[in-house]
Hints:
The chain has helices at about 5-20, 40-45, 90-95, 150, 165-170, 180-185, 195-205, 215-235, and strands spanning about 25-30, 50-55, 60-65, 70-75, 80-85, 115-120, 125-130, 135-140, 275-280, 285-290. By secondary structure, it is of the alpha+beta class. The structure holds a DNA duplex.
Amino acid sequence: xxxxxxxxxxxxxxxxxxxxxxxxxxxxxxxxxxxxxxxxxxxxxxxxxxxxxxxxxxxxxxxxxxxxxxxxxxxxxxxxxxxxxxxxxxxxxxxxxxxxxxxxxxxxxxxxxxxxxxxxxxxxxxxxxxxxxxxxxxxxxxxxxxxxxxxxxxxxxxxxxxxxxxxxxxxxxxxxxxxxxxxxxxxxxxxxxxxxxxxxxxxxxxxxxxxxxxxxxxxxxxxxxxxxxxxxxxxxxxxxxxxxxxxxxxxxxxxxxxxxxxxxxxxxxxxxxxxxxxxxxxxxxxxxxxxxxxxxx
DNA sequence: CACTTGACCTGTCCGC
DNA sequence: TGCGGACAGGTCAAGT
Length: 297
């Protein structure tokens, strides 16, 4: 899915676009994408107004004045795209002049649309998901922080709580594991996925298969800073569009233009010029510079 | 324990 | 051009 920077980019967009809007109707195409009962939806979603859009890890939270929140996970291929009503600039306007190349979505709904939320002003929010792994759930807002998976998330890497001490304590909980799998563990740090794990490890010159216990403390300092820098830069660039990520306005992110290893197999390392290699680590495709990132002994 | 595999799904790309 | 297999940003459960 979208990782932290992509979800955050969507959050920023939705906050601006849908806050204060009243939900008029909801349509589904794929029951598993939205498993709540029709009566819950009728009672707590229809007619409700959007209060706020927030994020925890890779989960998006849309709180409503009914006391419920829409909790959304985009997994691998989810998109949340807002389309204004035709009166204030509809699909033709948006995708026609101006930005012909930064959009990936055409007229909506399309074949991957799973849920459509229509607002009172006739604007719409589309939840698209090619692979159907993503989901939307309606949950009482006060219960959201107590859901199992929400409680288990580690610290937010871009919040003050992500101190060097906390970071070291968290990764050392898995001191015998390989660093790449630890970075992907959402209970250690929230929000890092495959792209940003690879980028952070390249930036700190750590081989992904290194055991955490063998990483010196000063290198862990560099790694924490690399994680923060990589995620911050990506949010600044509107996230990474490798395949089908788009923001709330249907537009691509440009972080892939700044990536040093991810999806750059055989291209020269930006530091030393030797070709980037693709290996498998933690069961995932993993990109490294074999010269800069020394294999653990 | 740590780690891998399979499952959830659809689509694309690569080699034959 | 067609076909089979590998692979894709995430996460969970089950097995080694």
